[in-house]
């Protein structure tokens, strides 16, 4: 029997979610249910898994269960970059084929999302905007040089953008230089995730505000998923629960719960846009990953994302004074870049939890008899969650493909963490050390 201890506890101040219309009342898990498949977690991974299962098995009863509303978890509260390029550590992998497989998987995810957004008219600011990777000081420039070399080795297209040209887009001359890569898409994450949830095939039933508190196996080998007001019996469980996978007793001591935070302004006025000469709809990630992400939405809000925290109790690890300090840090980053807009307030500040592993390895596959998972995307889960959820469903129904071979060859077992208190001490000091070293890029 696996007892779940901690449930998701996301804050109520996510700007993306607040910008959406009030959702319809949630349908909750009540009574005793039976299903052919249950997917737990309605983020990118769980949504994709449920959709693909339904495509394979149109007669099956599939339940997609989330502790919160669809779009309320990390998948609805990220910065909205759907990135084709693997992150830095994966780009440094010695085998070119490994990197090409990752690229192929991410691009398949982008194609899949683009098709669904078009087919179901999902209104989510989807845009083929590309991405700037920006450097402020010497440290950032050194990272950028390294990134450029990795891209050249990979044969990927990119363009150097110097300060003046960059300022013409971003409306700030804060950055010395950037590298523009064309393959990234931008979106409104809560809108996209809600749209994906609303357009699932008919044989997927979505149960929200229904935390699964315990998994148990019955004498017949079926799983019993216990909720607050009901239970589900099923032979097959797919976990799209990211960091919370460890709460079900799996991948214990192998995942690190990390939280990062974002703030956004109200939409800028025409006069404010003109005063700094900023364009709408672009995104910039920091050359040094510990720096600041900046984005301008299609509806002209500026977003600042930075700060990492180790959160062993997920959202419950964050209190009001931490939130206040994060907001002040976001204000400082905003004012440094846009001093002329210092009067523009942030309307929302929020955080979200995701999983990283010490060896930057994603888990994909079987965890137990009848239990499968994709977990630990190391913070780039929009594309990865989508493709890994899709292929997990393929694996569960036994549908072989080249993509399934690819994902199985680039995933593995996240490495074991040292025991507490060494783990917490180590992670916290590493985060502080990275923030100090990267202060020029914040
Ligand atoms: C501020 C921020 C910015 C980010 N920016 C980006 C970005 O620009 N691009 C990008 O690709 N990634 C970004 N990320 C990371 C990205 O959001 C995650 O990698 C991604 O959302 C993971 O998707 P997932 O479907 O695997 O998991 P999640 O979205 O975490 O979904 C897991 C779901 O499981 C549910 N759940 C957990 N436990 C239970 C339970 N017991 N019962 C029922 N349901 C349960 C949760 O409620 C949740 O909805 C960012 C993250 C944050 C916080």
TrEMBL record:
The keyword Amino-acid biosynthesis appears for this protein: no
Keyword Isomerase: no
SUPFAM superfamilies: FAD/NAD(P)-binding domain (SSF51905)
Superkingdom classification of source: Bacteria
E.C. no: 1.-.-.-
Residue span, FAD dependent oxidoreductase domain: 36-394
GO molecular function annotation: oxidoreductase activity
Pfam family, one: DAO
Keyword field: Oxidoreductase
Record PANTHER family: FAD DEPENDENT OXIDOREDUCTASE DOMAIN-CONTAINING PROTEIN (PTHR13847:SF281), SARCOSINE DEHYDROGENASE-RELATED (PTHR13847)
Protein name, entry field: NAD(P)/FAD-dependent oxidoreductase
Species of origin: Pseudomonas azerbaijanorientalis
């Amino acid at each position: 029997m696996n007892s779940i201890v901690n449930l998701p506890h996301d804050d109520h101040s996510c700007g993306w979610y607040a910008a959406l219309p009030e959702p319809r009342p949630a349908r909750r898990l009540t009574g005793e249910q039976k299903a052919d498949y249950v997917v737990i977690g309605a983020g990118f991974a769980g949504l994709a898994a449920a959709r693909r299962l339904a495509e394979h098995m149109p007669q099956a009863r599939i339940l997609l269960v989330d502790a919160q509303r669809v779009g309320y978890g990390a998948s609805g509260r990220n910065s909205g970059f759907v990135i084709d390029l693997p992150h830095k550590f994966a780009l440094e992998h010695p085998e070119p084929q490994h990197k090409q497989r990752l690229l192929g998987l991410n691009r398949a995810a982008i194609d899949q999302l683009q098709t669904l957004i078009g087919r179901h008219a999902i209104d989510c600011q989807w845009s083929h905007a590309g991405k700037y990777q920006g450097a402020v000081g010497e440290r950032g420039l050194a990272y950028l040089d390294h990134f450029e070399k990795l891209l050249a080795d990979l044969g990927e297209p990119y363009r150097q953008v110097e300060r003046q040209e960059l300022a013409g887009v971003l409306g700030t001359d804060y950055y010395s230089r950037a590298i523009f890569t064309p393959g990234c898409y931008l979106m409104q994450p809560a809108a996209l995730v809600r749209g994906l949830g609303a357009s699932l095939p008919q044989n997927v039933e979505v149960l929200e505000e229904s935390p699964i508190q315990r998994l148990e196996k019955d004498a017949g080998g079926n799983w019993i998923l216990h909720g607050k007001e009901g239970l589900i019996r099923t032979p097959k469980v797919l976990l799209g629960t990211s960091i919370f996978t460890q709460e079900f007793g799996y991948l214990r001591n192998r995942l690190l719960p990390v939280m990062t935070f974002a703030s956004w302004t109200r939409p800028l006025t025409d006069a404010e846009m003109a005063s700094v000469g900023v364009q709408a709809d672009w995104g910039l990630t920091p050359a040094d990953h510990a720096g600041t992400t900046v984005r301008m939405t299609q509806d002209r809000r500026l977003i600042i994302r930075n700060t990492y925290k180790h959160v062993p109790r997920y959202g419950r690890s964050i209190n009001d004074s931490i939130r206040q300090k994060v907001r002040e840090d976001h204000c400082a980053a905003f004012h440094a870049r846009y001093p002329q807009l210092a009067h523009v307030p942030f309307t929302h500040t929020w955080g979200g939890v995701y999983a990283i592993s010490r060896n930057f390895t994603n888990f994909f596959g079987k965890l137990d008899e009848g239990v499968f998972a994709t977990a630990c995307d190391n913070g780039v889960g929009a594309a990865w969650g989508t493709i890994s959820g899709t292929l997990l469903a393929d694996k569960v129904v036994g549908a072989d493909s080249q993509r399934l071979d690819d994902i199985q060859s680039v995933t593995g077992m996240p490495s074991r963490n040292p025991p507490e208190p060494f783990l917490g001490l180590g992670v916290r000091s590493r985060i502080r050390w990275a923030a100090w070293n990267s202060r020029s890029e914040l």
